Amino acid sequence: MPIHDQSYRRYGGQREDITRVWFVIARAGILGFLKRRPFMGLLIVAWIPFVVRAVQAYTSTMFQQASMLALTPDSYRTFLEQQNTFIFFVTVFVGAGLIANDRRANALQIYLSKPLTRGEYILGKFAVLFTFLLLITFLPAMLLLLLQAAFAGSFEFLVKNLHVVPAITLFSFIQCLVATLSMLALSSMSNSSRFVGIMYAGIVLFSDAIFQFLRAVLRSSGMSWMSVPATLAQIGDFVFRLKLRYDTPVPVSFLVVAALVAISLSVLERKVRGVEVVT
Predict the structure, then answer these.
(1) So what's the pLDDT on residue 154?
(2) CB neighbour burial string for 2-28, b if at least 16 within 10 angstroms, e if fewer
(3) Which pTM was predicted?
(4) Exposure string for 149-161, b = 16+ CB within 10 A, e = fewer
Protein backbone atom coordinates (compact mmCIF):
# COMPACT_ATOMS: atom_id res chain seq x y z
CA MET A 1 0.00 0.00 0.00
CA PRO A 2 1.51 3.40 -0.96
CA ILE A 3 2.27 5.87 1.83
CA HIS A 4 1.41 9.47 0.95
CA ASP A 5 3.17 12.50 2.36
CA GLN A 6 0.88 14.16 4.92
CA SER A 7 3.10 17.16 5.71
CA TYR A 8 2.16 20.80 5.14
CA ARG A 9 1.28 21.70 1.56
CA ARG A 10 -0.23 24.85 0.10
CA TYR A 11 -3.85 24.59 -1.01
CA GLY A 12 -4.13 24.36 -4.78
CA GLY A 13 -7.92 24.48 -5.21
CA GLN A 14 -10.38 27.30 -5.72
CA ARG A 15 -10.62 29.85 -2.94
CA GLU A 16 -13.82 31.15 -1.42
CA ASP A 17 -14.65 34.79 -0.86
CA ILE A 18 -12.13 36.28 1.60
CA THR A 19 -14.89 37.77 3.77
CA ARG A 20 -16.28 34.31 4.49
CA VAL A 21 -13.03 32.64 5.48
CA TRP A 22 -12.00 34.66 8.54
CA PHE A 23 -15.63 35.08 9.60
CA VAL A 24 -15.97 31.32 10.13
CA ILE A 25 -13.10 31.38 12.63
CA ALA A 26 -14.48 34.47 14.36
CA ARG A 27 -18.03 33.10 14.61
CA ALA A 28 -16.88 29.75 15.97
CA GLY A 29 -14.68 31.44 18.58
CA ILE A 30 -17.37 33.88 19.71
CA LEU A 31 -20.08 31.22 19.97
CA GLY A 32 -17.68 28.92 21.81
CA PHE A 33 -17.02 31.46 24.56
CA LEU A 34 -20.69 32.44 24.83
CA LYS A 35 -21.44 28.85 25.83
CA ARG A 36 -19.13 29.07 28.85
CA ARG A 37 -20.97 30.03 32.02
CA PRO A 38 -17.96 31.54 33.83
CA PHE A 39 -17.32 33.82 30.89
CA MET A 40 -20.96 34.87 30.65
CA GLY A 41 -20.81 35.67 34.36
CA LEU A 42 -17.76 37.85 33.72
CA LEU A 43 -19.60 39.72 30.96
CA ILE A 44 -22.59 40.32 33.23
CA VAL A 45 -20.35 41.71 35.99
CA ALA A 46 -18.61 43.93 33.40
CA TRP A 47 -21.96 45.58 32.66
CA ILE A 48 -22.67 46.49 36.29
CA PRO A 49 -20.93 49.92 35.97
CA PHE A 50 -23.23 50.64 33.01
CA VAL A 51 -26.30 49.87 35.11
CA VAL A 52 -25.01 52.17 37.87
CA ARG A 53 -24.40 55.00 35.38
CA ALA A 54 -27.82 54.47 33.81
CA VAL A 55 -29.49 54.80 37.21
CA GLN A 56 -27.41 57.92 37.82
CA ALA A 57 -28.56 59.43 34.51
CA TYR A 58 -32.20 58.61 35.23
CA THR A 59 -32.08 60.00 38.77
CA SER A 60 -30.39 63.25 37.75
CA THR A 61 -32.95 63.78 34.97
CA MET A 62 -36.13 62.91 36.84
CA PHE A 63 -35.33 64.53 40.19
CA GLN A 64 -34.18 68.14 40.29
CA GLN A 65 -32.63 67.63 43.72
CA ALA A 66 -30.20 65.12 42.18
CA SER A 67 -29.07 67.38 39.33
CA MET A 68 -25.50 67.23 40.65
CA LEU A 69 -25.41 63.59 39.51
CA ALA A 70 -25.89 64.56 35.85
CA LEU A 71 -23.48 62.85 33.46
CA THR A 72 -20.75 64.99 31.91
CA PRO A 73 -18.06 64.25 29.28
CA ASP A 74 -15.78 63.46 32.22
CA SER A 75 -18.29 60.80 33.32
CA TYR A 76 -17.85 58.91 30.06
CA ARG A 77 -14.07 59.14 30.33
CA THR A 78 -14.27 57.80 33.89
CA PHE A 79 -16.61 55.01 32.80
CA LEU A 80 -14.20 53.78 30.13
CA GLU A 81 -11.35 53.98 32.62
CA GLN A 82 -13.33 51.88 35.09
CA GLN A 83 -13.75 49.24 32.40
CA ASN A 84 -9.96 48.72 32.29
CA THR A 85 -10.25 46.04 34.98
CA PHE A 86 -12.78 44.09 32.92
CA ILE A 87 -10.73 44.62 29.75
CA PHE A 88 -7.82 42.96 31.54
CA PHE A 89 -9.79 39.91 32.69
CA VAL A 90 -11.65 39.43 29.40
CA THR A 91 -8.38 39.74 27.47
CA VAL A 92 -6.74 37.05 29.61
CA PHE A 93 -9.80 34.78 29.64
CA VAL A 94 -10.45 34.95 25.90
CA GLY A 95 -7.13 35.84 24.32
CA ALA A 96 -4.57 33.71 26.14
CA GLY A 97 -5.48 30.52 24.32
CA LEU A 98 -6.63 31.87 20.95
CA ILE A 99 -3.38 30.92 19.19
CA ALA A 100 -1.54 29.09 21.99
CA ASN A 101 -4.12 26.28 22.01
CA ASP A 102 -3.76 25.85 18.25
CA ARG A 103 0.01 25.70 18.63
CA ARG A 104 -0.26 23.09 21.37
CA ALA A 105 -2.53 20.92 19.18
CA ASN A 106 -0.40 21.54 16.06
CA ALA A 107 -3.55 22.94 14.44
CA LEU A 108 -1.75 25.75 12.62
CA GLN A 109 -0.57 23.27 9.99
CA ILE A 110 -4.15 22.18 9.45
CA TYR A 111 -5.50 25.74 9.31
CA LEU A 112 -2.87 27.01 6.89
CA SER A 113 -3.00 23.98 4.60
CA LYS A 114 -6.59 24.98 3.84
CA PRO A 115 -7.63 27.86 1.56
CA LEU A 116 -6.66 30.22 4.38
CA THR A 117 -3.85 32.74 4.60
CA ARG A 118 -2.03 33.84 7.73
CA GLY A 119 -3.74 37.21 7.51
CA GLU A 120 -7.19 35.63 7.43
CA TYR A 121 -6.36 33.32 10.32
CA ILE A 122 -5.07 36.22 12.44
CA LEU A 123 -8.05 38.40 11.48
CA GLY A 124 -10.45 35.68 12.59
CA LYS A 125 -8.73 35.30 15.96
CA PHE A 126 -8.47 39.09 16.28
CA ALA A 127 -12.20 39.49 15.70
CA VAL A 128 -13.05 37.13 18.58
CA LEU A 129 -11.28 39.11 21.30
CA PHE A 130 -11.87 42.53 19.74
CA THR A 131 -15.63 41.91 19.60
CA PHE A 132 -15.87 40.98 23.27
CA LEU A 133 -13.79 44.01 24.31
CA LEU A 134 -16.00 46.37 22.32
CA LEU A 135 -18.95 44.68 24.01
CA ILE A 136 -17.79 45.99 27.41
CA THR A 137 -16.42 49.38 26.33
CA PHE A 138 -17.80 51.00 23.19
CA LEU A 139 -21.28 49.42 23.26
CA PRO A 140 -22.23 50.28 26.87
CA ALA A 141 -20.77 53.80 26.56
CA MET A 142 -22.78 54.55 23.42
CA LEU A 143 -25.90 52.96 24.90
CA LEU A 144 -25.47 55.10 28.01
CA LEU A 145 -25.26 58.18 25.82
CA LEU A 146 -28.51 57.25 24.10
CA LEU A 147 -30.22 56.56 27.42
CA GLN A 148 -29.14 59.95 28.74
CA ALA A 149 -30.71 61.63 25.69
CA ALA A 150 -33.86 59.53 26.06
CA PHE A 151 -34.29 60.38 29.74
CA ALA A 152 -33.75 64.08 29.02
CA GLY A 153 -36.11 64.01 26.04
CA SER A 154 -33.64 65.96 23.89
CA PHE A 155 -30.19 65.85 22.35
CA GLU A 156 -29.06 69.01 24.11
CA PHE A 157 -26.15 67.24 25.80
CA LEU A 158 -24.89 65.86 22.49
CA VAL A 159 -25.23 69.22 20.77
CA LYS A 160 -23.21 70.95 23.49
CA ASN A 161 -20.60 68.16 23.55
CA LEU A 162 -20.20 67.05 19.95
CA HIS A 163 -16.76 65.62 20.70
CA VAL A 164 -18.09 62.95 23.08
CA VAL A 165 -19.21 60.46 20.39
CA PRO A 166 -15.91 60.49 18.42
CA ALA A 167 -14.00 60.50 21.72
CA ILE A 168 -15.81 57.38 22.95
CA THR A 169 -15.31 55.70 19.59
CA LEU A 170 -11.62 56.54 19.19
CA PHE A 171 -10.56 55.78 22.76
CA SER A 172 -12.56 52.54 22.95
CA PHE A 173 -11.02 51.31 19.72
CA ILE A 174 -7.51 52.23 20.88
CA GLN A 175 -8.02 50.40 24.18
CA CYS A 176 -9.34 47.29 22.46
CA LEU A 177 -6.78 47.35 19.64
CA VAL A 178 -3.78 47.50 21.97
CA ALA A 179 -5.12 44.78 24.27
CA THR A 180 -6.12 42.48 21.39
CA LEU A 181 -2.93 42.70 19.34
CA SER A 182 -0.68 42.46 22.40
CA MET A 183 -2.44 39.36 23.64
CA LEU A 184 -2.48 37.70 20.21
CA ALA A 185 1.26 38.33 19.84
CA LEU A 186 1.95 36.75 23.23
CA SER A 187 -0.40 33.86 22.49
CA SER A 188 1.50 33.11 19.28
CA MET A 189 4.77 32.75 21.22
CA SER A 190 3.78 29.89 23.52
CA ASN A 191 1.92 26.59 23.64
CA SER A 192 0.57 27.29 27.14
CA SER A 193 -2.40 29.61 27.61
CA ARG A 194 -1.58 29.90 31.33
CA PHE A 195 1.91 31.11 30.61
CA VAL A 196 0.54 33.59 28.08
CA GLY A 197 -1.87 34.98 30.67
CA ILE A 198 0.96 35.34 33.17
CA MET A 199 3.13 37.11 30.58
CA TYR A 200 0.35 39.56 29.73
CA ALA A 201 -0.36 40.31 33.39
CA GLY A 202 3.37 40.74 34.02
CA ILE A 203 3.79 43.24 31.20
CA VAL A 204 0.78 45.33 32.26
CA LEU A 205 1.49 45.30 36.01
CA PHE A 206 5.28 45.40 35.86
CA SER A 207 5.40 48.31 33.41
CA ASP A 208 3.07 50.31 35.65
CA ALA A 209 5.09 49.40 38.76
CA ILE A 210 8.30 50.66 37.13
CA PHE A 211 6.60 53.93 36.22
CA GLN A 212 5.21 54.44 39.72
CA PHE A 213 8.66 53.76 41.20
CA LEU A 214 10.35 56.26 38.89
CA ARG A 215 7.59 58.75 39.55
CA ALA A 216 8.22 58.55 43.27
CA VAL A 217 12.00 58.81 42.86
CA LEU A 218 12.09 61.56 40.22
CA ARG A 219 8.96 63.32 41.50
CA SER A 220 7.82 63.67 37.91
CA SER A 221 5.27 61.85 35.76
CA GLY A 222 7.21 62.39 32.55
CA MET A 223 8.06 58.68 32.36
CA SER A 224 4.43 57.59 32.05
CA TRP A 225 5.21 56.29 28.56
CA MET A 226 6.89 53.29 30.23
CA SER A 227 3.52 52.14 31.58
CA VAL A 228 0.90 50.72 29.25
CA PRO A 229 -2.06 51.73 31.49
CA ALA A 230 -0.63 55.22 32.04
CA THR A 231 -0.03 55.69 28.31
CA LEU A 232 -3.63 54.81 27.53
CA ALA A 233 -4.85 57.06 30.34
CA GLN A 234 -2.90 59.98 28.88
CA ILE A 235 -4.42 59.38 25.45
CA GLY A 236 -7.89 59.11 26.99
CA ASP A 237 -7.56 62.48 28.72
CA PHE A 238 -6.41 64.07 25.46
CA VAL A 239 -9.21 62.55 23.39
CA PHE A 240 -11.88 63.69 25.86
CA ARG A 241 -10.32 67.18 26.05
CA LEU A 242 -9.62 66.91 29.76
CA LYS A 243 -6.64 68.10 31.76
CA LEU A 244 -3.70 65.76 31.19
CA ARG A 245 -2.71 63.85 34.31
CA TYR A 246 0.92 63.17 33.29
CA ASP A 247 3.80 65.30 32.01
CA THR A 248 4.49 63.04 29.04
CA PRO A 249 3.79 64.77 25.69
CA VAL A 250 0.72 63.34 23.98
CA PRO A 251 2.60 62.56 20.71
CA VAL A 252 4.96 60.35 22.73
CA SER A 253 1.99 58.41 24.11
CA PHE A 254 0.64 57.86 20.60
CA LEU A 255 4.08 56.75 19.43
CA VAL A 256 4.20 54.17 22.23
CA VAL A 257 0.82 52.79 21.15
CA ALA A 258 1.95 52.70 17.52
CA ALA A 259 5.13 50.87 18.58
CA LEU A 260 3.12 48.28 20.54
CA VAL A 261 0.88 47.68 17.53
CA ALA A 262 3.86 47.40 15.15
CA ILE A 263 5.76 45.00 17.44
CA SER A 264 2.67 42.83 17.91
CA LEU A 265 2.08 42.61 14.15
CA SER A 266 5.73 41.76 13.59
CA VAL A 267 5.60 38.94 16.15
CA LEU A 268 2.42 37.57 14.61
CA GLU A 269 3.98 37.66 11.14
CA ARG A 270 6.95 35.63 12.37
CA LYS A 271 5.17 33.16 14.63
CA VAL A 272 2.01 32.28 12.73
CA ARG A 273 3.34 29.85 10.13
CA GLY A 274 2.23 26.55 8.69
CA VAL A 275 5.65 25.09 9.48
CA GLU A 276 7.62 25.92 12.61
CA VAL A 277 10.87 27.59 11.64
CA VAL A 278 13.72 27.08 14.12
CA THR A 279 16.54 29.64 14.02
Answers:
(1) 83
(2) eeeeeeeeeeeeeeeeeeebbeebbee
(3) 0.88
(4) bebbeeeebeeeb
